[in-house]
Amino acid sequence: MGNTVSSTPSFRSCGLCYFKLPAGTPFLDQPRVSRRGIELVGLPDQGWKTGRLDDVLLPWKNIDYVEMETELDALRDSSGRGCVGCTAILQCLDAQLRDRGFTLGDQCWQDQCTLIWLVGDRKPYNPSLLLRVSVSATTKNQSEEHRVEEFSVSPSAAALGYTGSSASLEAIKTWLKNCKTAHEDCRQPAGVLPYRVVELSRDANGQADFRLVQGLGGREKYACLSHRWGPSTERCRTTSLTLTSYLERVPPDILPKTFREAGEVAMYLGLKYLWIDSLCIIQDDEDDWKAQAAEMCNIYQGSYITIAATSATQGDDGLFHTVPKFPVSPVESADRRDLVLADFPLLARGWVYQELLLSPRFVHFARDEAAWECAGGNGDCECGMAAGQALWPRKRAYRINMAAAPALYYTSAGWRQMASEYSTMRLTYDSDSLPAIAGVARQYGTKHRGSLGCYLAGLWEKSLVQDLLWYVPSEVKSARREASPVPSWSWASVTGGSQQLGSLQATTAVDPLELVSFRVDLAGPDEFGPIKYAEITVRGLLALGSWTAVPGSASGHRFAQYHPCRIISTGSSGRTGGGYCIDADYDFLDAEGSRRLEEGCTVFCLKTGFVFYQHHVCLILRPLNEERTAFERIGLLQTAHKDDVDSWYEGGQAAQAFKLL
How many angstroms separate the CA atoms of 101 and 63, rounded? Predict the structure, then answer.
């Protein structure tokens, strides 16, 4: 390519997007393009060089990316002479503008655009292209400047076509082979077959045939399916009435498309067994559900590979998608929730969090391509942009936490981070808040039992006081889960919508809150799973006070303030009108029944003993009985200066023991 190959190359590349040009494509002298090559090792770049559109002025040998500046019209000229890469970029730009209600104006073609060609580091990674452009886009009524987000396109994407093609499945085979041979973190013996599993075979027409088998035992490679439920899943689930017939054969006409295609993938990879939750758990048998839910950790951890319908919203969407000939998509942060919901809806579901963490290998079937990630945090995809990268950094971080020395500070901090991330996930049933993460809790808690102690409804015995420092940010309208046995002191008792819970990493502790005892009544055989009841008895200092609601944003959102009975004036920044803003676990005034709290009612402030930036961290509690021996947590206070808080407890009062429910 350019001056790094022979003077008579067998093919030409576009001097703008670097796609291969079809034979006989016309040359273009205009417009001019400025380019520079840049190394990512701290060395100076090569400086800007200007040439014709068909000139490739920069060597590829030692540079990591090429940045180009030209007018948008250069893309149109190059597209007009038959360059498929420039055509794809323009199609993407037009589509993205139309989604925002804009179209390309007559004057926009003279606007500046920047293209950045990521060369990679000459390992077997496919390069990729970023486009930044500001254009004078127009609406029906006016013309205005419109900043367009970044877009990406890959030259290898043109070959995708269909994610269920032999080329896509062969790519998965290659990733699997490389993983087995090169990734020590991913090597493990075949897992023990789950009690109930789907046996795969071919029918007379060569189609995947499903039969449920149970009690086989023994070690055997098997795949798991990660998917979102929907109406088609409801029609194909094992119940006490369908179990006997499914042990003979699952009727092919009721199989959702996702199930059938997952069977095809598993058999292509040489696997005979596939675990699917809706088929392998008797859905109307509570005892069977609890027993199998307790095995989730072993099921996903022991799988050979998990097949994920990442872009499917329900069972009949299927795994496989027909890909546009030259797919181009916006570059966004993988952590942005709107992107997750729009392009990868599976990743927004609560149950998937532990499936991703526990599975040694995970293959995503997205709209445009298949992608891969495994236990060592190694990623890959068909377009090559994810090669060698962690698609989901939490998976790698989890493995590091699992292998870390059993120091309480690190193990408890790792768990709090996971709980915060998990709290963003959506659950169809609030009762699943603890069961859906039980597999991770089992694996993590078993590994670090010595440092963490017993599992207490989402928290840990030996780090309990610091685990209590979770909070719902005050701008979020959250709710306490209805009819839930999860105690108020657990983060799993509230839902904050799409907002993850915060967790203060306070490190200074004075007069710490003491855990006296705890009680957790399980709802099944899994000590990390659903519960019927939980309470803790703690010993600490309580300060009497009250609360008021303060209007917040223009939307009408309210904030809560704590008012201690002993008011002082130190000029602390956290005080507003004699009160201290708290992060409420839920909106007290909007709550119904016994959870509703009227303004001015009695509440208490409990010191945790932790100080965060010279501010005491306290729990706000409401009494549940006249004797004030049992309390419910309703919020967290982190805005009161430690001197203010200390004054509330003057007089030498002794710490008292009481229950938190």
Answer: 39
